[in-house]
Design goal:
By secondary structure, this protein is an alpha/beta fold. The protein has eight helices and six strands. Strands 2-1-3-4-5-6 form a six-stranded parallel β-sheet, with helices on both faces.
C-alpha cells in the first residue's frame, strides 16, 4: 500500500498544480490534492474566511481520504503533508489535529511559510478593491505573468479567493500550539518574501528531526524546481525509514 502525500496550496491557488508538479512521486505515493471551497475543483462552493474553518475542512478531507484507503487495504495508511505558503499553515494545523487523534503524519513539509501567527501579508491587503488586490498581490508575491495580470477574467476569478485567503491569514490569532513528534522539513526560495530566520522557526514545531533547504527563486520557487523538490521530499522520507 502506497503512503498518502497530501498537497495544500498557496492563497488563491489550487493543489492540483502541485500534483502535476510532483508527478514523479506517483510511483511512491498516492498524491491527494486538498482544495478549499471555492478553489480548483470546488469552484462554486462558498468561500471560507477564517483559518479555523479552513482547517476543519482540510481535516475532514484528510479523514475521508485516509478512511477510503483504509477500507481498501484494511489498515490506516501512512501519510505525509506538503503545504506551500498558506498550505503550510493549514497542513500543520490539520496534522496536529490528526496527531491528537493518534494518527500523526510520517512527515510534514512546509514551504515558503512563517510559523502560525506570523506572516508577510500586508495588513491592508484584505481591505483593497479586487483590482488593487490583484495588482498588489502580484507585486508582493510575484509569480504572475504580465499577460495573466492583465486578464480581467482571471482577476474576477482570483481576487475573491485572495481576499478570503489573505484575510484569513491576517486575522488569524493562534492560541498555544503543540509541537509535532513527526519530522518537519522546511523549504524557501533565495528571493522569497519569507526570510530564512522565519522559516527556521518551524524547528519549534517538532520534537523530531528538522531540516531547512533553500532553492533558487522567489516565493513561487517551487514551480522552477518541481523535480528537485520532489527528489528532496523522497530522499527525506527514505532516510527517515532507513
Amino acid at each position: 500500500m502506497k503512503p498518502v502525500l497530501f498537497l495544500l496550496s498557496h492563497a488563491g491557488g489550487n493543489a492540483a498544480q502541485y500534483a502535476y508538479l510532483f508527478s514523479a512521486l506517483r510511483g511512491h505515493f498516492e498524491l491527494v490534492p486538498l482544495e478549499l471551497p471555492g478553489h480548483g475543483e470546488r469552484t462554486g462552493e462558498p468561500l471560507l474566511y477564517t483559518i479555523s474553518d479552513m482547517t476543519r475542512d482540510v481535516i475532514e478531507q484528510m479523514r475521508r481520504a485516509l478512511g477510503k484507503s483504509r477500507a481498501r487495504h484494511e489498515r490506516r495508511p501512512d501519510y505525509a503533508v506538503f503545504g506551500h505558503s498558506l498550505g503550510s499553515l493549514l497542513g500543520y494545523l490539520a496534522s496536529a489535529a490528526l496527531a491528537g487523534e493518534g494518527h500523526p503524519p510520517a512527515h510534514l513539509f512546509v514551504s515558503s511559510a512563517c510559523i502560525p501567527g506570523q506572516h508577510y501579508v500586508p495588513e491592508n491587503f484584505p481591505k483593497l478593491s479586487a483590482d488593487a488586490l490583484w495588482q498588489a498581490s502580484a507585486a508582493h508575491f510575484g509569480g504572475i505573468p504580465q499577460e495573466a495580470l492583465n486578464s480581467q477574467e482571471l482577476q474576477r476569478y482570483f481576487a475573491p479567493l485572495l481576499q478570503a485567503d489573505l484575510g484569513a491569514v491576517v486575522n488569524y490569532k493562534p492560541a498555544a500550539l503543540p509541537a509535532l513528534a513527526s519530522p518537519v522539513t522546511a523549504f524557501y526560495g533565495t528571493d522569497d518574501t519569507v526570510e530564512k530566520a522565519d522559516v527556521e522557526k518551524w524547528r519549534r514545531f517538532t520534537t523530531g528531526a528538522f531540516q531547512c533547504h533553500c532553492l533558487d527563486g522567489g516565493h513561487f520557487y517551487l514551480f522552477q524546481h518541481g523535480p528537485a523538490l520532489a527528489e528532496r521530499i523522497l530522499a527525506e522520507l527514505e532516510a527517515q525509514s532507513a
